Automatic annotation (TrEMBL):
PANTHER family: QUINONE OXIDOREDUCTASE-LIKE PROTEIN 2, SHORT-CHAIN DEHYDROGENASE/REDUCTASE. One of its GO terms (molecular function) is oxidoreductase activity. It comes from Novosphingobium aquae. Its EC number is 1.-.-.-. Signal peptide: none annotated. This is NADPH:quinone oxidoreductase family protein. SUPFAM superfamilies: GroES-like, NAD(P)-binding Rossmann-fold domains.
Length: 325
């Protein structure tokens, strides 16, 4: 019987156990997928701990990104067949060897992309695309400062930014993370936490203020980064791995800059056609070789605790992946 990482109450990774779990056969509009790889993110672990902004029902199987092979097709589903290589995302239920998914939210893996890459592709790259194209209306030649540039969404923002013709400045805390960001195409790197960080950013942008900030970090970094913006700048709020912050409202006023929220779930619920179009677009670009997710470490499903702890630590220069068999 297939297995899943599951718990009857929220808590740290060692609260969870690997148990037998059979999701059953697919119903109307569903696919049963044998999961081959799953992305492990900070938010996945935060949710598993019961500390995210919404709490899913218990018992809970963590995870939000996967890639695998179709095992069975439910009634009313067209365009898929057993054996198809697919990927997608969901709200939990992913750290498992098999799961059921609505076919409308499943896509075929682009040729040449492996399961591990596909598992960490959709959420990160759709987020970066939505943020830069829809929310920031980025224009070629503008400058983009990416915080947490070696993290999942940060690295995706570096690659998407370069594709869009932006001057990309990557902020990362270690030489390993800076090297990862440079490999993704960053034009310049600056050292997160450095006393002269703002001076580094300005120098990296030719002495000018920045047009766009991509911020999945939050905390003290948000205030500092917002101050790097110029007239008409846009600060994209992606997440808050560093904690929440209280930005003084005089800063947007004085700089004539905007604080812009970015949330994939809200986008999918309120503008589903636009979200679907974005998904198709980033998949096309991946198939053309423009995007290549960075993977820092792979763990077998049995080592889910170590994988979750590494993802939660923020120390990985790239994404963490669980592999099932």
């Amino acid at each position: 019987m297939p297995r899943a990482v599951i718990a009857d109450q929220f808590g740290p990774p060692d609260t969870y156990a690997l148990r037998e779990y059979d999701p059953g056969q697919p119903g109307e509009g569903q696919l049963r997928v044998a999961i081959k790889a799953a992305g492990v993110s900070f938010v996945d672990v935060l949710t598993a701990r019961g500390e995210y902004q919404f709490k899913p029902p218990l018992p809970y199987i963590p995870g939000s990104e996967y890639a695998g092979v179709v095992e069975a097709v439910g009634p009313g589903v067209t365009g898929f067949a057993p054996g198809d290589r697919v990927f997608g995302s969901g709200l939990g239920g992913i750290f498992a060897e098999a799961a059921l998914f609505n076919a409308a939210n499943v896509s075929k893996i682009p040729a040449g992309m492996g399961f591990a890459e596909a598992a960490v592709f959709p959420v990160n790259y759709q987020t970066a695309w939505h943020a830069l194209v829809d929310r920031a209306a980025a224009k070629p030649g503008e400058s983009l400062l990416v915080l947490g540039a070696a993290g999942g969404t940060g690295y995706a923002a570096v690659e998407v930014g370069k594709y869009l013709g932006l001057h990309v400045i990557a902020s990362a805390s270690s030489p390993e993370k800076q090297a990862a960001a440079k490999a993704g195409g960053a034009d310049a790197v600056v050292t997160t936490g450095a006393a002269d960080w703002r001076d580094q950013v300005k120098a990296a942008n030719g002495g000018k203020d920045v047009d766009i900030v991509f911020d999945p970090v939050g905390g003290e970094a948000t205030d500092l980064a917002f101050r790097t913006l110029g007239y008409g700048g846009r600060h994209l709020v992606i997440g808050f791995t560093g904690g929440l912050t209280a930005l003084k409202t005089n800063l947007p006023l004085l700089k004539c800059a905007s604080l812009v929220g970015v949330q994939m779930r809200g986008h999918a619920l309120n503008r589903p056609e636009e979200a679907a179009s974005n998904r198709v677009k980033v998949m096309e670009l991946a198939a053309q070789g423009h995007f290549h997710p960075a993977i820092a470490a792979k763990f077998p499903l049995e080592d889910y605790v170590a994988a979750m702890e590494l993802a939660f630590s923020g120390k990985a220069a790239g994404r963490v992946v669980l592999e099932m068999g």
